[in-house]
Amino acid sequence: MTTSAIAVTGLRKTFKDRTVLDGVDLDVGSGTVFSLLGPNGAGKTTTVNLLTTLLRADGGTARVAGHDLETEAKAVRAAIGVTGQFAAVDELLTGQENLQLMVDLHGASAGDGRRRVTELLERFELTEFAQKPASTYSGGMRRKLDLAMTLVGDPRIVFLDEPTTGLDPRSRRTMWSIIRELVADGVTIFLTTQYLEEADQLADRIAVLDQGRIVAQGTPDELKRQLPGTHIRLRFAGTAELDAAAQVLADATRDDDGLTLRVPGDGGTASLRALLDRLDEYSLTADELSVHTPDLDDVFLALTGHTTEATK
Ligand SMILES: Nc1ncnc2c1ncn2[C@@H]1O[C@H](COP(=O)(O)OP(=O)(O)O)[C@@H](O)[C@H]1O
Ligand SMILES: [Mg+2]
């Protein structure tokens, strides 16, 4: 049983007459990666802004790092770090100066501060560019510097709002490995993303946000299993075996070229056992058995009835 780093019930936010969050419930286990997944305009940044005390909610309750968001905002702020969707880096300062500024804000001693800056520059592979103004940095370098600045205070919970949007594949992978390292150190990550693959790669749990509501929540595999389309694939040694099996498994779809049968099933142990028993009963053997689940793009479409057009 893990404790909750973030627990949210009935969170609501309205801008003028536009309801942006319409009763959001979330639970993020300590030391896990939680991904809030949704297209542009779904309410991801609004959720992050509420949970990091940058905005005030119109309804609902939330505890972050064990503190009530409404009455203990200061304690919440002390426990968290936020890397916003738009980098908070000062363009006119060098990478080193940006980090030094954060260190100074946290009141470290001069020696400790310098060590911390050096260590963070190395960790984020920015040492080489430390003396260059941030305005000369690529998008990926800027994001890394921004995250390094967030980590100066050693936050136990880090909010990352679309940390890889617009990054090239290589910078995205670097960001992913940095996130994995943070988790290995016990940090809780609240990550928003428009990228289904990113949530699938990083998250222990995913909540799908669509028009201010959570339309699904679970592990990546749980979300994928909720869908029709999961099937078991059997591959046979030859056409004779395929023919025999196709007669027995009447609801399967056959692929003669691949010598395979696609058998509908949820991929759970009960349906697998039933399938194997049936093959056994007719003395049939398959060379290979695999369970195929849909990817998160399929999940989003099935859950919301529309695609994540914002990612296209
Ligand atoms: N300060 C604001 N005033 C009015 N509308 C806002 C404000 N902030 C966000 N919105 C609206 O709320 C919706 C959700 O925005 P946002 O949380 O930024 O979504 P996301 O981060 O998922 O793209 C959008 O339609 C946006 O236009
Ligand atoms: Mg946003």
Automatic annotation (TrEMBL):
Taking the first listed entry, what is the main subcellular location of this protein, grouped into a coarse class? membrane
Q: Where is the signal peptide?
A: none
Location in the cell? Cell membrane
Protein keywords? Antibiotic resistance, ATP-binding, Cell membrane, Membrane, Nucleotide-binding, Translocase, Transport
Question: Which InterPro entries does the record cross-reference, listed alphabetically?
Answer: AAA+_ATPase, ABC_transporter-like_ATP-bd, ABC_transporter-like_CS, ABC_transporter_ATP-binding, DrrA, DrrA1/2-like_C, P-loop_NTPase
SMART domains (UniProt xref): AAA
Entry keyword annotation includes Nucleotide-binding: yes
Recorded topology in the membrane: Peripheral membrane protein
Any matching Pfam family: ABC_tran
Entry GO MF terms: ATP binding
Name all ABC transporter domain ranges. Answer: 6-236
Spell out the family assignment given in the record's similarity comment.
Answer: Belongs to the ABC transporter superfamily. Drug exporter-1 (DrugE1) (TC 3.A.1.105) family.
Q: Which PANTHER family match?
A: ABC TRANSPORTER ATP-BINDING PROTEIN, DOXORUBICIN RESISTANCE ATP-BINDING PROTEIN DRRA
The name under which this protein is listed is: ATP-binding cassette domain-containing protein
Phylogenetic placement of the source organism = Bacteria, Bacillati, Actinomycetota, Actinomycetes, Micrococcales
